[in-house]
Design a protein that fits this description.
Strands 2-3-4-5-6-7 form a six-stranded antiparallel beta sheet, with no helix packed on it. It is 12% helix and 30% strand. The two termini are 39 Å apart. It is globular, with a radius of gyration of 27 Å. 42% of the residues are buried.
Amino acid sequence: MKIRILFTTLLLCMAAFSYAAHIDNVPRVLIQPNGDTLRCFVSGDEFYLRLHDEKGFTIVQDKQTGYYVYAEKRDGEVLPTAWVAGTCNPADKGLQPGVRISKEQYLERRREMVMPAKVERARNENTNKGNMNNIVIFIRFADDTDFTNSFADVNYMFNDSSENYTTNSMFNYFRTTSYHQLFIRSTFYPQPDGDQILSYQDIHPRAYYREWSSENPEGYDASSNQRTEREHGLLERACNYVENMVPANLNMDYDNDGKIDNIVFVVKGDVGDWAVLLWPHRWSLFSKEVYMHGKRAYDYNFQLADATGYFNTSTLCHEMFHTLSAPDLYHYVEEFSDVTAVGPWDLMGSNQTPPQQPCAYMKYKYGNWLSESDILPLDHYGTYTIMPLNSETPDRQSYFARTQIPTELIMVDFRSKTQPFDSSVPGRGLVFYRVNTLFNGNANYNGDDNLDEIYVFRRNGTPDNNGLINNANHRSGIAARKEFSPLTNPYPFLENGEFVPVFFNNLTNDVDSMQFDFTEWVGIQDYANSSYALYPNPAQQFITLTTSNEGEHTFQLYTLFGQMLQEVNTMEMNCRMDVSNLPAGYYLIKVLEREKHITTLKFIKQ
């Protein structure tokens, strides 16, 4: 069966929204109105940024006094307290860590930004292939001096195309990741003067683009649409300033949809202390009719030139992959789930330096760089060879196994942890992940009607436990990660928690490839059709195992991680086992006759 039939929700169109790379625990240094220094952290994305201390106590700016103070939640709102951050122990004041806006408030913020910017793009066999020209426009505010960045460094970050394919540039990343199918060149405006970056200087100072407070009376009202008006007005003026500097014959619309393919606005300065406008993000210029040589300026990335932790190749690649249609693979709202679904195993899950490869499914569905012949079905038992995900050619890049639910698949990639652009993943080996073809990305996850599109299986990971996301790689030589089955740690399970009867073993490592056996999993059978059965299921206190077979039987109780908890040898045809002390969850009973494995039964402990 062809992969296009199984991946039933392959997009026929692509939607452009507002996206930003998620950040966690990034250090920030703030200056209080009295001159005191406050060292803290920031976490979140463009929809909601949360300042906090090292213990997770939320910090907000009191708009009336200008001081950064600890926050509390009252009547569903995150509000300032009287306690100045850094001057006391917030726990002693009865405050709680982790205070943040509600899920509903977050989703409303996201909706307000996403919905006006939504646009549909036609998709065909040539999507994300060929030569794309990315426009870069430099901006500084009215109270700024010239850029101090070296243009040579910035140009390298965007454009380096030397034959040394390990160079860390956005051009090389997409050239390599697309298997030489997509080439993104960036041109810069105003054009530099040697190594000096020239820029459009706006009519407003930086304070105009920060939120209002008593310390910043020029700022915008965050409760209104002033943020959109000011940001889009700034970008409109910058586009108009450089339009005649852009060659009229430059192909800015390689997919012929009437819009400039992408613009990166690079603004002088660092990220703001609070305002989400002055943070790296991707959005659309939907509120303005701005044209350059007849093509509408629409999709754009917003970058801060002096934000060294963000203005780098990894962030550029993450945001550009959004432009190419890829969704985020992290959960936007922390309180929806404590589980990190993908983490460092995909560019859209967590940015690494240098940027890591997207998984094969992302390359197939959103990149359009892999086809049916590159992701192969495991439709027969045998030995398979798999090539590294960062190979120069798309040959045997990934395999998929069907599950008992047609819309959920188990996929496997080989992460080689080598250059180019996969050296930053946590480890070398096979990475198994679940794909739910009903969803697009993981950003809408709410644990209810919206679930993950991709979930990476990792050690100690269960439907309710995050486990160790960095320990997802399987290979020969790693204890307890030489196989992947319902009795290993990790084990394959569906969105609903039900385990998947697949068996990968005999992993071998070569320099340039790996091999594995895909064999029949004989351990899990339908006990209703077996000569063995157990009841009740689910159970709270005891389970009774019954058989119609005479002779000696051995019953072994296992966790799903393969740890044996009990063993009973009996001649009785009914055997009672006490399970009252077991934690709630799934368990396995392995049945042996004369030391021969007969069947495996599954039960749930409530």
